[in-house]
Automatic annotation (TrEMBL):
Residues 38-260 form the Aminoglycoside phosphotransferase domain. Belongs to the aminoglycoside phosphotransferase family. It catalyses: kanamycin A + ATP = kanamycin 3'-phosphate + ADP + H(+). This is Aminoglycoside 3'-phosphotransferase. NCBIfam families: APH_3p (NF033068), APH_3p_I (NF033059). Keywords: Antibiotic resistance, ATP-binding, Kinase, Nucleotide-binding, Transferase. Its EC number is 2.7.1.95. Pfam families: APH. The keyword Nucleotide-binding applies. It comes from Duganella dendranthematis. SUPFAM superfamilies: Protein kinase-like (PK-like).
Length: 270
């Protein structure tokens, strides 16, 4: 597996106020993620800290606007990228952010097999910290009822990439995913503050600990299994024992299989 999750690219056209800030930076385009937007890392040739620029049009621009709001809120509780500049037009959005130092959890797991158990423990500690944020302090709703309505809208608009489904749903249609989710309802909610896309690529590691997270556009109150399902699914690429270790360290002896399945199905539609 290639650990390089980005590639160099030319300077991209940006609004004047952002372009002026990025003179002299080297541009690298992120190759990970299915959000529909584009993420660039700006590497300074003068020794300054890296910056990240996220760009999108239309519905993706709305998502970037949402992420900006969530970044500013979540920064009260943990390390996330700081918003340097935000520009929004009717059709486009540009979000310039600081870089969180560290290496992604995915890269660390891939490069250091002997460190996998310790890293999974660190991820569990970080997720417990996130889920301990008081729900009454969070202004954002990301519950499954809300996200089901968003998923239905994406299906109806033809926005779901059916070719990107997980292997166990290879060849499925978006409607089949939708129907499979309906069979798992209703679910008894267990609301916490969730990241919403708690994947290994969105967690930054430094000195053996998760020091922060990125890609916060789905942060909000939801069932804790929203985060658990995505993280456990990511760990299948490495070792099933890591899933058991993570659940134990997080504090779950018997995971709710219906909730895990539901949230994996839901994630296919975004």
């Amino acid at each position: 597996m290639d650990l390089n999750r980005e590639q160099t690219c030319g300077v991209v056209s940006a609004p004047l106020e952002i372009a002026a800030m990025l003179t002299g930076y080297e541009w690298l385009c992120n190759t990970v993620g299915e959000s529909g937007g584009t993420v660039y890392r700006l590497r300074s040739k003068e020794g300054a800290s890296d910056l990240y620029l996220k760009y999108g049009r239309d519905a993706v621009a709305d998502e970037i606007s949402t992420e900006m709001e969530r970044l500013n809120w979540l920064a009260r509780y943990m390390t996330v990228p700081a918003v340097v500049h935000f520009t929004r037009t009717p059709d486009e959005a540009w979000l310039l952010m600081t870089a969180v130092p560290g290496t992604t959890a995915y890269q660390v797991l891939q490069a250091h097999p002997d460190y996998q158990l310790a890293l999974v423990d660190a991820i569990a500690r970080f997720l417990r910290q996130l889920h301990a944020i008081p729900v009454n302090e969070c202004p954002f709703n990301s519950g499954h009822a809300y996200r089901l309505s968003c998923a239905r809208a994406r299906i109806d608009a033809g926005l779901v990439d059916e070719g990107d489904f997980d292997e166990e749903r290879d060849g499925w249609t978006a409607e089949q995913v939708w129907e499979a989710m309906q069979r798992l309802l209703p679910l008894t909610p267990d609301p916490v503050v969730t990241h919403g896309d708690f994947s290994l690529d969105n967690l930054l590691i430094k000195d053996g600990e998760v020091i922060g997270c990125i890609d916060t556009g789905r942060v909000g109150i939801a069932d804790r299994y929203q985060d658990l399902a995505i993280l456990l699914n990511c760990l299948t690429e490495f070792d099933a024992a890591l899933q058991e270790r993570f659940l134990k360290q997080y504090g779950i002896d018997e995971p709710d299989q219906d909730k895990l399945q539901f949230h994996l199905l839901l994630d296919e539609l975004f």
